[in-house]
Amino acid sequence: xxxxxxxxxxxxxFPLEKFExxxxxxxxxxxxxxxxTQPDDWHLHLRDGDLLEGVVSHSASxxxxxxxxxxxxxxxxxxxxAVAYRESILKVLPVNSNFTPLMTLYLTxxxxxxxxxxxxxxxxxxxxxxxxxxxxxxxQDGVTDLFGKCLPVLEEMAEQNxxxxxxxxxxxxxxxxxxxxxxFIETILKPxxxxxxxxxxxxxxxxxxxxxxxxxxxxxxxxxxxxTPQHLLLNRNSLFQGGLQPHNxxxxxxxxxxxxxxxxxxxxxxxxxxxxGTDSAPHERRRKECACGCAGIYNAPxxxxxxxxxxxxxxxxxxxxxxxxxxxxxxxxxxxxxSKIKMTRTPWKVPESFSFSFGNIIPMFAGKTLEWQxxxx
Length: 377
Fold this sequence. Notes:
Layout: E1 25-28, E2 31-37, E3 41-44, H1 49-60, E4 65-68, H2 79-91, E5 100-106, H3 113-122, E6 125-130, H4 151-160, E7 164-166, H5 180-195, E8 201-203, H6 209-217, E9 223-227, H7 229-233, H8 257-268, E10 274-276, H9 285-288, H10 303-313, H11 320-332, E11 340-349, E12 354-356, E13 359-361, E14 369-376
Parallel strand pairs: 3-4, 4-5, 5-6, 6-7, 7-8, 8-9, 9-10
Antiparallel strand pairs: 1-2, 2-11, 11-14, 12-13
Helix pairs in contact: 3-4
């Protein structure tokens, strides 16, 4: 309760009464502490092999669960492969970690309705990911005929209440890269929702006001969206300021400021349709800083700090917990976490890089000072 507040606390930018009876907020001198239900990450790339072993602790230290993306080489296209991938993740978790990976299947033109039934029975697979062929990293095996070859699978997914996670971009090279999300909504996503209104859909890592409007126009509980830290804090200028910035390059690519503003307003406004999905995507430094660099931003170590910044700047810290910890499990029909984390408003510096035996990874906001620091209680 806020009645135990100790003043002064100059960091506050919002009415204290918003927190009454909802979560614990404490101020001790210049520091502010915020207690949240432990968040989940509803869109995460963990990779495999040495890369998996190197990065998994950054997610496991902050998040209770994560929807793990299936775009490995080869992709995770079967329930058996998903079970095996899950085991490889569990083997490299830190000692005493309670982190739970929630697995996904990679949808292809050859996926069968029987595979969806197996996935549902497994209690390991929680969703199926749609990558239009060629849309992003390791998507060359993705879908080419959604409304033809994949339709029986989508119908079975609706029957099994298995969510479809969508990378929402067309891959037509004649469409401007900054317009590909908007065109995907008009030509693929709207027709899909109209044809299969009972299918649960998550539009992943949205980047435009068009996506915000589409999600808000759909029935609550049937269509939702994940939102990344980068699309809340950066616009497309961040790709070019001071020279080409490869560590700010991701897909879908960053957009204009008007789109960032629209996403921030939707997320901090308290809508249940939007929830945390970092799209944290680690690549070795040499694969980012090269003639043809990989798409992906590694934000797992800083994601919660950055989300807190967005909500504080909007005067909406009272809505942070629903976005990070409630909306996602509610949409998936899973219980909310019972564990807690503490967010402390105390400055800390992001490492310039993380060094591993296989090379270095540059995190989002490398070398910068952030104001919020999470810790598990």
